[in-house]
Design brief:
Elements (H helix, E strand, L loop, with lengths): L4 E7 L6 E3 L2 E2 L9 E2 L2 E2 L2 E3 L14 E6 L4 E6 L5 E5 L6 H4 L9 E6 L29 E3 L6
Antiparallel strand pairs: 1-5, 1-6, 1-8, 2-3, 2-7, 4-5, 7-10, 8-9, 9-11
């Protein structure tokens, strides 16, 4: 199966680090796609479209996440086919226009739900055969999925 989307479930430390339609989101009550303490967007990998983003809404997002997030690649039916194997934010997938250093989700969303300065990320599959023995990076295919 071919990855089409990335899904994030990121525990945000400071909701006020986002502005929605130019207004600071002090308590995280303005940001779409929030589920409890987590921010849970699904983003199309081909063009950076944030799925189910409300029309006409803009956002500047700079969320500190560190190791409090989970990330999956989804197929065309939005079924999970792979999981991020590292503890930190997959920077190439969730930081556009700035550098998050694995601790932040950083990007801006336009009023049509598109991420500004989006660059289609390269998918690197995790492999236990790395010379250094560190397979804690890249995407691990979920059992039962022929990704």
């Amino acid at each position: 199966m071919t990855p089409i989307y990335i899904e994030a479930s990121a525990e945000v430390r400071y909701w006020e680090d986002a502005t929605i339609n130019g207004q600071e989101d002090t308590n995280g009550t303005l940001i779409p796609l929030r589920k409890g303490a987590n921010w849970c967007p699904v983003i199309r990998l081909s063009d950076g479209c944030v799925m189910d983003w409300p029309a006409g809404m803009t956002a500047d997002i700079h969320f500190k996440v560190c190791d409090a997030g989970e990330y999956w690649l989804l197929d065309e039916n939005r079924q999970r086919i792979a999981k991020w194997s590292g503890y930190y934010v997959p920077n190439d997938f969730l930081c556009h226009g700035d550098q998050g250093y694995g601790d932040y989700i950083i990007f801006s969303v336009t009023d049509d739900g598109m991420i500004k300065s989006f660059t289609k990320p390269e998918i690197v599959w995790a492999c236990a055969c790395d010379d250094d023995g560190d397979d804690d990076r890249g995407w691990k295919k979920l059992e039962g999925c022929a990704a």
